[in-house]
Amino acid sequence: MDTKQNKPRRFQVFMEYTWLAIGILSFVTWLFTSIQEGFKDNLMLLGISVTSFAMFFFRKYLRKQYVNSKDKAKTDK
């Protein structure tokens, strides 16, 4: 496999797991502060967490679609 073709895939996977890490960290922070201060005071952290998880799944879905389309294009040639 050519390394130039492999680098964008590695970066895409890295960015997926970066969104996952942000989601986990913000959810844990929201949970910790919600227990101490109350649930309504920290809704922004919950929103960040939900958005991060959505971005993780959205990017993963798009990457798989992109890889499948490239594989299909290779087999059609």
Structure commentary:
- The longest helix has 35 residues, at 3-37.
- The protein has 77 residues and is mainly alpha-helical.
- It has helices at residues 3-37, 43-76.
- The protein has one domain (10-67).
- The two termini are 18 Å apart.
- Helix 1 (3-37) packs antiparallel against helix 2 (43-76).
Gross geometry: elongated
For the record, the count of structural domains works out to: 1
* Residue fraction in strands: under 5%
Task: Give me the secondary-structure category.
Answer: mainly alpha
- What is the number of beta strands? 0
Order of helices and strands: HH
Query: Termini, distance in Å?
Result: 18 Å
What is the average per-residue confidence, as pLDDT, rounded to a whole number? Answer: 87
Largest beta-sheet characterization? none
Number of helices: 2
Uncertain stretches: none
Attribute tags:
77 residues; mainly alpha; 2 helices
Secondary structure blueprint with pairings:
Elements: H1 3-37, H2 43-76
Helix pairs in contact: 1-2
Describe the structure concisely for a colleague.
Helices cover 90% and strands 0% of the residues. By secondary structure, it is an all-alpha fold. The protein is elongated and about 60 Å long.
